[in-house]
Amino acid sequence: MKNILKNITLFTLFSSIAACSLVEPVDENLLGEERLNFDPAFAEGVLLNAYENMVDQFAFTDVATDDAVHNYLSGYRRMATGEWNAQNAFTSRWWQYEHVLYANKFITLIDEVVWKRDEETNALFKERLYGEAVALRALRHFWILQEHGGRGQSGQLLGIPYITEFYEFDADFNTPRLGFEETVTQIIADFDEALEYLPMDYDGDLAKRPSRYNDSDDDKYQFVFGKDQDARINGRIIKAFKAKLYLLAASPAYMNGQGGYYQDAADILAELLNDIGGIGGLDPTGHYNFYEFPIGTRNFPEVLWRGNASAGMTWVESQHFPPSLNGSGQLNPSQNLVEAFPMLDGFPFSESHPDYNATNPFENRDTRLQRYILYNGNDLNGRVININSAGVDGIDQVSQRSTRSGHYLKKLLDQKINISADGSISASEKFNVYVRYTDLFLMLAEAANELGGPDQMVGGMSARNILAAIRARAGIGLENSDAYLSSIASQEDMRNLIRNERRLELCFEGHRLYDLRRWNIFDETPDAIGLQFNGGEYNEFSVEPRLYNANANYAPIPQNEVVRFNLIEQNEGW
Fold first, then answer.
1. Of 436, 394, 387, whose CA–CA distance to 412 is shortest?
2. pTM (2 d.p.)
3. C-alpha–C-alpha distance, residues 40 and 128, integer Å
4. Which candidate, 140, 336, 253, places its Cα nearest to that of 552?
5. Which helix (H) or strand (E) holds 272?
6. What is the per-residue pLDDT for 298?
């Protein structure tokens, strides 16, 4: 931990803030730490650093699972093929303690700064900013726990060190891990405290303001908590992450249903989802309209929290378009994932299904397959991709550009983009999604099923009717009833279906790696397979092994931290 915490000295804070252009340099930055106490913009820059480097869906951790492979030797490819260890902790989030310290440093500054000259407005600013800092501290600890919580070498289920103060460079960094449930309790306590200070939404709605502000001047409250603060963390986002934490805790790799965490998750999720209309509030185009949008669009009913829209992310298309469209084709979805998409009538994919077409196995399938995977004969905005041995898009035709699996990525890409041979690229916008509502619906389905089976109602919703709505949105069961879903009678069968729906709906968004681990089955990840088209027929082939041991469900803590600090216990098997 020392290599992270020691670097968060005031010198680093100042240089980071200046590098991010949060404030303009003054007198060659000769002003010292005291500037934090009188310059609100400079002081708030510390908090804004706590917002930086959120968990990124475009990291494509799917390559470490059975859903995809890379066509180059990436860290996730090395991880999947046997090089994952404490020295090569490819998915480590230990670095997020840096952002914990930014939040903690900011908390020490709040009362020293005059945010507004008006006394009441100044007090409102202090309270809102304090709530944000505490919420961000909890969020960062959640992400670290999600990665590094696990059973230690002592056999005890452990959490992580929980840091609630700013550490100066000469502080004692040898901080032990808390127990797992103790860590959960600490995170929830911070989330709950933040909820006292932050509104559900930054809309200035006086009827929804936290009770502590009931006697505040209406205009001043609306000024501080109005729509200009949108995109900052708020009460609705906090509750979504509380539910994520409870579901993590309840999962088989952790408390395995003990402790009431499934009920805690379900109650919060039902509240959030009923607030948008329950199942009727499911966005009918939510499985694609959060990434297929025109430049300048800002209204995304599917998205609860996201980063800023950016025109500087066309590298995603450059990396993942197939070589015939001047891309590098880096991420290659597996045939494992392709076969997880059901037939159009909702029954699992099978060559014995009456609608299966051996000459075109992509026909009569769940429509999400066509939207998410660029398979042979599929297109990008009318540009048909032929994945055969006759062209550059064929398997292994061009080193580190052609597919290794027989498929290319389509989801999250702007299909309208054109990449010229010289590398110039047309305009596009993109943003990083932190939470979207379909994820929350699927979380509620999972929690409700674990509480009482397929038809257990929580807030008027059950696993069965949630999945019915999500699958109908994808075109399943529209012409006839979803007979397969109707046939699901047991909790176990519904559990498997929910897990598959999460795999499909949330593919390439950074969820599967952590789902497999919390379900305690990451060590069972099958090898990645591909599909090759030769002479009018398709044949499966082995692409890449998945070499995970029994310890894979709990990720390692970086070994240099464990070596330096004897109170930090490593997870078992690492």
1. 436
2. 0.94
3. 14
4. 253
5. helix 261-274
6. 84
d(CA 470, CA 491): 19
Residue 135 near residue 63 (C-beta atoms within 8 A): no
Whether the predicted pLDDT of 478 surpasses 90? no
* Both tokens assigned to 169: 């460079």
3-class DSSP assignment, residue 37: helix
Please report, for residues 163, 178, 283, 296, the alpha-carbon distance to residue 308 in angstroms, rounded to integers and kept in the order given: 28, 35, 21, 11
Entry field: residues in the chain: 574
Task: List beta partners, residue 384.
Answer: 379
Find, among 430, 427, 423, the residue nearest to 327 by Cα.
423
Cα–Cα distance between 442 and 247 in angstroms, integer?
11
Burial 294-331 (b: 16+ CB within 10 A, else e): eeeeeebbbbbbbbebeeebbebbbbbbbbbbbbbbbb
pLDDT at 535: 75
pLDDT in tens, 443-462: 999 999 999 999 999 999 99
**Phi, psi of 544, deg, nearest 5:** -160, 135
Residue with token string 């550009």 = 401
CA R_g for the chain: 25
Q: Average pLDDT over the chain, rounded to whole?
A: 92
Q: At what angle do helices 235-250 and 180-197 cross, to 10 degrees?
A: 170
For the chain, the structural domain boundaries read: 2-256+555-564
Amino acid at 363: E
C-alpha pair distances (Å), 120 with each of 116, 117, 144: 9, 9, 37
How far, rounded to the nearest angstrom, does the alpha carbon of residue 64 sit from its chain's CA centroid? 15
68-77 mean pLDDT: 98
Both structure tokens of 464: 């069965």
* Phi-psi category of residue 393: left, alpha or beta, with phi > 0 → left and psi -120 to 50 → alpha: alpha
Domain 2-256+555-564 fold: 1.25.40
Q: Can you tell me the distance from the alpha carbon of 362 to that of 373, in angstroms, rounded to the nearest whole number?
A: 10
